[in-house]
Structure to design on (548 residues):
């Protein structure tokens, strides 16, 4: 046989932005060997793609699957929506490098996932090898987290690094780059990244730049300070010479109306020669633990430690004041707390207060005869930190503006999870983890026409491949690795998203896989067929130095 697989009669969208053309795709030795008119008898296996779209596999440039891929290597929720490459290590948090002295502090930043993994690695290379040895259904690209490096050297101390500290951090970043990291990420609203100065980040980014790496940043504010935070990220890139990716850069509650100014800043930076691009997901909500709106220092040690601090009356008053003042900006969803929009914050997970699940904190406060902030803090204590809320904190018009912007590529900001096993027991509402790509194709392409199909595919494939330097992925072209998605555009449907205003209990929790994804190939092997996982662990661990 000339081909291992022929995908026959499909409408091929090649990933470059061109409209579809009806062609066959031949796969041999795990790569795309021919694109043209092919004889089905030449293949060991033929996939009939009549009336279906054939596109490159989706490259998710911003994910948090670092541990969940070790818990479940099948990458169920991601590969079933067409994702064939995951970029890990975002928002300043990677699982490596580690230090024995501060390992427990690092694990606390990961939550319950950390308890399901054997943390026997120490270097970044050790971590990548762990994924490689276990196998994975998707390709893996990984970044080293600035916060992780800072914890390894300094714990979660709120101070500037000494000269010795900074040299140690630079050595860890350099080591991670040598081991295969594609760059460094930062999370400047999280513990401990929020304690870093611009100068510290510049010095570490110089190390990344010398090795041709990328700097991705969850910038230092996504709301009232978003313009200043964006300017800081650009200054870091200009001073260090690093390439810049601004993560999930949609204005959050408190910054609505600032996108036009942000767009002018993007364009001006690129005019000065800054290699600046952005990414975003298309969901308006997020489901974090209650503790994550508290001041960063109050989150140290995890959710239970945060609840314990609130049991001290004096400490509680300090935490309450600093939460409302928000002087060191917290994550975007904390803007709802700052602006008193308790009507858009809903209790999602609780054990002792199950009867209140689905109730807004505005209503909970009224029921309890309290101010909303006090009801919120009381619930955090009552649940001993094991509680989460659903925050609806992004304006859909801003999402549409981001989708249209030429510098924006698609991300999920989600995890590879599954509705069964250990991951099925972890509480959370993660529609982006199950349906980000189908959601955009269904709603913003097919229903609303915010993007054309070919432009949406470009933003999901060749554009992130270009940013990452993956020259052999992201397009349907001869010689490329055969990362391919075959889907029914007319019937693709996300089944994991509840649109605001919510109706509780959420009808799609536990989570559901999308519809309309017919086949997914990773490196020329079929991982999903007729919407079902084959069990194949066909992914590669990609290293920046080798680009396998």
């Amino acid at each position: 046989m000339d081909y291992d697989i022929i995908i026959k009669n499909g409408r091929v969208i090649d990933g470059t932005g061109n409209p579809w053309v009806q062609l066959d795709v031949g796969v041999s030795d795990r790569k795309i060997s021919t694109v043209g008119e092919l004889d089905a008898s030449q293949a060991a296996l033929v996939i009939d793609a009549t009336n279906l779209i054939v596109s490159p596999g989706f490259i998710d440039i911003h994910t948090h699957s670092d541990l969940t891929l070790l818990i479940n290597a099948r990458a169920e929720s991601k590969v079933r929506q067409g994702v064939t490459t995951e970029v890990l290590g975002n928002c300043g948090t990677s699982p490596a490098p580690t230090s024995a002295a501060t390992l427990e502090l690092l694990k606390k930043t990961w939550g319950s996932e950390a308890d399901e993994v054997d943390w026997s690695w120490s270097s970044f290379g050790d971590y990548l090898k762990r994924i490689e040895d276990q196998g994975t259904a998707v390709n893996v690209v990984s970044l080293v987290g600035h916060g992780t490096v800072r914890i390894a050297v300094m714990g979660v101390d709120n101070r500037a690094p000494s000269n010795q500290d900074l040299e140690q951090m630079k050595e860890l970043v350099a080591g991670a780059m040598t081991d295969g990291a594609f760059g460094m990420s930062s999370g400047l609203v999280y513990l401990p990244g929020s304690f870093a100065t611009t100068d510290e980040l510049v010095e570490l980014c110089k190390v990344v730049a010398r090795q041709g790496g990328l700097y991705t940043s969850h910038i230092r504010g996504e709301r009232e300070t978003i313009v200043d935070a964006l300017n800081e990220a650009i200054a870091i890139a200009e001073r260090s010479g690093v390439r810049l990716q601004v993560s999930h850069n949609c204005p959050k509650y408190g910054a609505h109306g600032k996108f036009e100014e942000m767009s002018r800043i993007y364009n001006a930076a690129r005019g000065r020669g800054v290699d600046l691009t952005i990414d975003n997901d298309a969901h308006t909500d997020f489901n974090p633990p209650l503790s994550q709106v508290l001041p960063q220092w109050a989150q140290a040690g995890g959710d239970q430690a945060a609840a314990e601090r609130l049991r001290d009356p004096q400490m509680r008053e300090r935490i309450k004041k600093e939460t409302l003042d928000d002087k060191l900006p917290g994550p975007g969803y904390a803007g709802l707390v700052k602006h008193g929009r308790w009507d858009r914050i809903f209790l999602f997970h609780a054990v002792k207060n199950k009867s209140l699940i689905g109730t807004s904190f505005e209503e909970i406060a009224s029921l309890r005869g309290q101010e909303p902030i006090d009801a919120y803090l009381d619930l955090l204590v009552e649940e001993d930190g094991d509680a989460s809320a659903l925050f609806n904190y992004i304006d859909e018009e801003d999402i549409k503006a981001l989708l249209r912007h030429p510098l924006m590529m698609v991300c999920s900001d989600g995890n590879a999870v599954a509705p069964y096993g250990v991951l099925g027991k972890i509480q959370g509402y993660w529609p982006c983890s199950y349906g980000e790509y189908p959601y955009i194709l269904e709603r913003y392409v097919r229903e609303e026409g915010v993007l054309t199909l070919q432009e949406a595919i470009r933003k999901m494939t060749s554009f992130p491949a270009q940013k990452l330097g993956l020259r052999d992925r992201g397009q349907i072209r001869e010689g490329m690795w055969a990362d391919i998605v075959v889907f029914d555009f007319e019937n693709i449907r996300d089944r994991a998203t509840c649109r605001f205003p919510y109706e509780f209990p959420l009808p799609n929790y536990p989570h559901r896989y999308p519809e309309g994804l017919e086949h997914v190939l990773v490196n020329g092997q079929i991982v999903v067929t007729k919407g079902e996982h084959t069990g194949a662990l066909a992914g590669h661990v990609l290293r920046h130095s080798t680009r396998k």
Summary: The mean pLDDT is 96. The chain is about 35% helix and 20% strand. The first helix runs from residue 68 to 71. The two ends are 26 Å apart (CA to CA).
